[in-house]
Amino acid sequence: MTEFNSILVANRGEIALRIMRTARAMGMTCVAVYTEADAGSPHVGFADRAICIGTGPVGDSYLDASKVLAAAQEAGAQAVHPGYGFLSENAEFARACTAAGLTFIGPSAESIALMGNKAAAKRRMIEAGVPCVPGYEGADQSPAVLAAEAAGIGYPVMIKAAAGGGGRGMRLVTAPEGFASALDLAKSEALSAFDSDEMILEKAVMRPRHVEIQIFADASGNTIHLGERDCSVQRRHQKVVEEAPCPVMTPELRAEMGAAAVAAARAVSYLGAGTVEFLLDGDGAFYFLEMNTRLQVEHPVTEMVTGLDLVALQIRAARGQALGLAQHDVALTGHAIEVRLYAEDASQGFLPQSGGISLWHPPSGPGIRVDAGITSGQEVSAFYDPMLAKLIAHGSTRGEALERLIAALRDTVIFGPACNRDFLIDVLSHGEFSTGAATTGFISDHFDPLLPPEVTSADLALAAGLIYRADQAAMAQQATIPADLLGWSSQGALQARMVLEAGGDPVTVQLRQGRDGIRVLVGAAEHHLDHQGDCLRLDGLRLDLRRHLMVGDDLYLATGARILKVTRVLADQGAAAAAGGGATRAPMHGNLLDLSVSPGDRVEIGTRLAVLEAMKMQHEILAEVAGTVSEVAVTAPNQVKAGDLLVQINQDNAKQEGTT
């Protein structure tokens, strides 16, 4: 038995806060680590003690095991919980914690190392009799051998980084002629991300379900499973929606998959929480995919259907205590669905976003849980993963959970960086998902490409009316004008004109205050905005306006259907923008890795200009206009801020026809 009463959480954001809440409830002292970029994060304020371990970059902070261990020793912590990501599946870190006299809340370093390598893990699973996808996980990594093995497996095949995860170092190859180039790309990406270019090959299971089994084991060898989670709705191999139980699960299939997961855990003498991931095909056959030796992002859905606190069980296992559960004690009640709220612009290829959060309004209600690591006024850093929060809904049935989650998303407001809230509403509202039929191909089938949402004249009329009323209210406060005289002068009703921009060309809007509201002219369209008390009507229809906020010249507004940012621009700025321009600016804070052009270069639309690394991903910056590069304003590698000028292009005035 290992006793400890103080825990250092070697993580950040929502998972650090979630772990500390359970630890605090168990009477433990909580120690947080943070960077200067995270100084305003809620997990820092919640902890009993917080220690700064760096400025911002993960390599010099959350991924630096020596800094984390030094912080634990400084704080007098007795145990370390790694959360997920960062050092959570780093066998050397687990080993270093033990060597430093700290209890690592997780499996042994040996289990982590074995299951962290896809090739070694698959070999062990085959030995243990766990169903596996046919493939190749041999030591000979020569391109010729890999190509021959792929031909023997039969196309389509998946190339996977043996040390990888999260979709990096992974390529689907549908024909032999594409194998060599796909292998080169996968190996290069894996070497950069995981410092290893070892590959495995697998027969591609097309459009399966991604179903994972939550397992737990204590020091006495008692190993059980807590049912399954369906994580099929993914974008580029990154999970978007998770739910428990799986919509197509049967008791017989659950027992079979659960037994295979328990066998996998026992094969590596597992301790604590783990997840065994499977691919489930349409015929009910399932195949081992990988094992995650940590707590999963999606663990709340399991907690909501089992009533168990998985972090508390982790702590019990790490202390050497019995789980206090047998398999027959586990019962699943109702249904739970989780979505991940990301700081990303879905209309711009899901480009990660950074910047200040002007307003964060989480939802509440029956069956709703919010795991968040943000607060109003906080800065979203480009150094870290763009996930902001997780929204989870529980109901007695899948339909009730789904209705509650959609309603919760409609009531969720984040003003500042663009977020994927509206995309999540669309995903959950889609007929294929609502019927439980979605597989791993769901998003690529229905949301690729994802077209930018249309900004209508009614949207602009609403924004113009809200900006106008904010201006009038500010004037009234300064000049002490009675409310009933707002918008009026000795010459009668006042008129106003403004130029607005909402992701497209600037639009001129004209307004006229009347006794019955505001008349708004947007191009040839005329709208009527009437605001009486708490009721706001546009063209006679009541608007579902949840929140709105002016931040400088930016108006943020959230309805139940969408979040929209509208910017008021000066007339000359609007004219310049409408005429087009060749200024390419950094879309976010980050590290500029590469510049691909020089002054005098000719570029076309789509030409790569630069590569920016931000939020753990590399992003190509492409030319949006055709022309000639007149200026390169930065050097690489270098840190840049959102909005910094990167490349100036002298845009072609007119499309030129080629000659021969």
Task: Note the main attributes of this structure.
8-stranded antiparallel β-sheet; Glycoprotein, Type 4 Pilin; alpha+beta; Rossmann fold; 33% strand; disordered C terminus; Dna Ligase, domain 1; globular; 660 residues; 9-stranded antiparallel β-sheet; 17 helices
Describe this entry's structure for a reader:
The structure is a single chain. This protein is of the alpha+beta class and 660 residues long. Among the domains are: 6-105, Rossmann fold, CATH 3.40.50.20; 134-203, Dna Ligase, domain 1; 457-574, Glycoprotein, Type 4 Pilin (2-Layer Sandwich); 580-651, OB fold (Dihydrolipoamide Acetyltransferase, E2P). The protein has 17 helices and 42 strands. A 9-stranded antiparallel sheet has the order 31-30-29-28-27-26-34-33-32. α4 (91-99) packs antiparallel against α5 and α12 packs antiparallel against α13. The longest helix is centred in the C-terminal third of the chain and has 23 residues, at 457-479. The N and C termini lie far apart (83 Å).
Summary of the model, kept short:
The chain is α+β, with helices and mostly antiparallel strands and about 650 residues long. Among the domains are: about 5-105, 3-Layer(aba) Sandwich (Rossmann fold); about 135-205, 2-Layer Sandwich (Dna Ligase, domain 1), CATH 3.30.1490; about 455-575, Glycoprotein, Type 4 Pilin (2-Layer Sandwich), CATH 3.30.700; about 580-650, OB fold (Dihydrolipoamide Acetyltransferase, E2P) (Beta Barrel), CATH 2.40.50.100. The chain contains 17 helices and 42 strands.
